[in-house]
């Protein structure tokens, strides 16, 4: 189909979902999208901007169709030719496929995983980075099945010329350029097809992956980080600059549980379960955020602000770093429009994606941009709306002089306690004195929403309730909320609550937090007023882990 025909096809084909039923994906800050009309922009649900100058784009529409646009270097648009296109063209070869995740290399080459876990690749292939056993550029998407045929791929990552995928069972496969050991095979021979990365990862369950220019990172379910590949700038965090041909644990992160990892061109960021960011590697543009331009071969804490960090962002083709806090603030540092920003800088953006659209060189996406429908109510959303609704409720709880409105049938379905207590109860008012209004309201709301929204101190009260009612999932959510809200001032109180309610995982987390912030914690009023037995056990346990060596 010619460009102009495709353009008209896009405009004229009936849209199956109404525009009002979708949030519009805000791509206006990306220069390449200025080539699209307003009508086309309103149809976009997912998008990825890539290429050496940010001059290529792939996007999906409300009809689950895939379109591409741009310079088409090495056939990276997957259209079967190397012709550039200034108007969107539909990628028919992936018709019917839904994109779960996507990454790109420097050639560029594309690695895409569908929602069914299949892998497709195309584009530059001089180093076998497509994984199809050849070194011929791929002009159309190729299904990659070698060693992956019975696997479901859930995450993909690309270095400059190598590829990495993660399967649903926690295995990692790599292929492509291997001059520095980035395939993790133990050699430096290029890998033409997917090969499982084993060694230290053999019996580990990997939960997330990332690639720098010529290195790889994998986080396992215990929170440990394993690294391999090029290390000339210290980007592996091992304390040296020697390349690593097989996975090696970052020992300097001992006792720290990492949740996410992100790689820039030659630097690495990790996010811990305490909301702390560590960085290491190249720093010539200040991309580590340490206040200087000195490379670091060991993990170094990045001070953003007192608020917890919930997201980190970097991309293997840039020297830019970004982070978002729990309060919604977005920071950036590193190479920002030609400037070297050596400390995290507070922006006016609401998402980290905008940092890369406006300040990265090139202006490329660090992840697949996506948007979901927002006004069609699912069953879960409908139930959420009915919580505490006096118009439809048939039961009222009187707590601290206030009413909370609920529905008997839902409570009996959702909670074993109510199933028995409401069985022969025809009352429409239940008085509750054992728990406070905020705690009991949060409990009832959880039964409608499967989520909680409380301060860590209130979550302690809800943890008490969850223990009393034997609601184990709620107990876990409370522990998670407490973890996210822990600070030096409340750490001892939360540790005490964890011990009281036999929440062992939470107890270990709070204890580890106290040890990591021991100097400040021991100066708080909570520590001074600590229960004698708890204090005795705390000191004993802290001594065993070497907290008082200095």
Automatic annotation (TrEMBL):
It comes from the Eukaryota. Keywords: Cytoplasmic vesicle, Repeat. RCC repeats lie at residues 117-169, 170-222, 223-274, 275-326. Its main location: cytoplasm. Residues 393-456 form the BTB domain. It is found in: Cytoplasmic vesicle, Secretory vesicle, Acrosome. One of its GO terms (cellular component) is acrosomal vesicle. InterPro entries: BTB/POZ_dom, RCC1/BLIP-II, Reg_chr_condens, Signaling_Regulatory_Domain, SKP1/BTB/POZ_sf. CDD domains: BACK_RCBTB2, BTB_POZ_RCBTB2_CHC1L. This is RCC1 and BTB domain-containing protein 2. The gene is RCBTB2.
């Amino acid at each position: 189909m010619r460009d102009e025909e495709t353009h008209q096809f896009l405009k004229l084909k009936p849209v199956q979902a109404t525009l009002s039923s979708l949030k519009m994906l805000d791509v206006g800050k990306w220069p390449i999208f200025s080539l699209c009309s307003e009508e086309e922009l309103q149809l976009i649900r997912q998008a990825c901007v890539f290429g050496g100058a940010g001059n290529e784009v792939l996007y999906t529409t409300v009809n689950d169709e895939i379109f591409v646009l741009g310079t088409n270097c090495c056939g990276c648009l997957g259209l079967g030719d190397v012709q550039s296109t200034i108007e969107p063209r539909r990628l028919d070869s992936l018709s019917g496929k839904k994109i779960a995740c996507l990454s790109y290399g420097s050639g560029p080459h594309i690695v895409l995983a569908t929602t069914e876990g299949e892998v497709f690749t195309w584009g530059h292939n001089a180093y076998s980075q497509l994984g199809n056993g050849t070194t011929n550029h791929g002009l159309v998407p190729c299904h990659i099945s070698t060693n992956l045929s019975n696997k479901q791929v859930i995450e993909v990552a690309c270095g400059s010329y190598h590829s990495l995928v993660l399967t649903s069972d926690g295995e990692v496969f790599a292929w492509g350029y291997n001059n520095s050991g980035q395939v993790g095979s133990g050699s430096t021979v290029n890998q033409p097809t997917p090969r499982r990365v084993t060694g230290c990862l053999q019996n580990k369950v990997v939960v997330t992956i990332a690639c720098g220019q010529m290195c790889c990172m994998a986080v396992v379910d215990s929170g440990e980080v394993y690294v391999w590949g090029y290390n000339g700038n210290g980007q592996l965090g091992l304390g040296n600059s020697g390349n690593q041909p097989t996975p090696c644990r970052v020992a300097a992160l001992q006792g720290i549980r990492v949740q996410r990892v992100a790689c820039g061109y030659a630097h690495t960021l990790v996010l811990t379960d305490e909301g702390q960011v560590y960085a290491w590697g190249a720093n010539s543009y200040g991309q580590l955020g340490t206040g200087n331009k000195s490379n670091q071969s060991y993990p170094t804490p990045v001070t953003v602000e007192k608020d917890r960090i919930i997201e980190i962002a970097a991309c293997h083709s840039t020297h830019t770093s970004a982070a978002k806090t729990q309060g919604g603030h977005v920071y950036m540092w590193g190479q920002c429009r030609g400037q070297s920003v050596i400390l995290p800088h507070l922006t006016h953006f609401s998402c980290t994606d905008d940092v890369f659209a406006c300040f990265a060189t090139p202006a490329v996406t660090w992840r697949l941009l996506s948007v979901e429908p927002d006004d069609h109510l699912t069953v879960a959303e409908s139930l959420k709306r009915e919580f505490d609704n006096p118009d439809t409720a048939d039961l009222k709880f009187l707590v601290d002089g206030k009413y909370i409105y609920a529905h008997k049938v839902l409570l009996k379905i959702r909670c074993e306690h109510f199933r028995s207590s409401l069985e022969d109860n025809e009352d429409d008012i239940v008085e509750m004195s054992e728990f406070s209004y905020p705690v009991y309201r949060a409990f009832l709301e959880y039964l409608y929403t499967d989520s909680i929204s409380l301060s860590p101190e209130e979550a302690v009260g809800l943890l008490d309730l969850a223990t009393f009612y034997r609601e184990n999932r709620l107990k876990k959510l409370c522990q998670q909320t407490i973890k996210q809200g822990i600070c030096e001032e409340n750490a001892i109180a939360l540790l005490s609550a964890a011990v009281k309610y036999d929440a062992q995982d939470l107890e270990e987390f709070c204890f580890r937090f106290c040890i990591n912030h021991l100097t400040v914690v021991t100066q708080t009023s909570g520590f001074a007023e600590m229960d004698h037995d708890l204090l005795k056990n705390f000191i004993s346990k802290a001594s065993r882990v070497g907290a008082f060596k200095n």
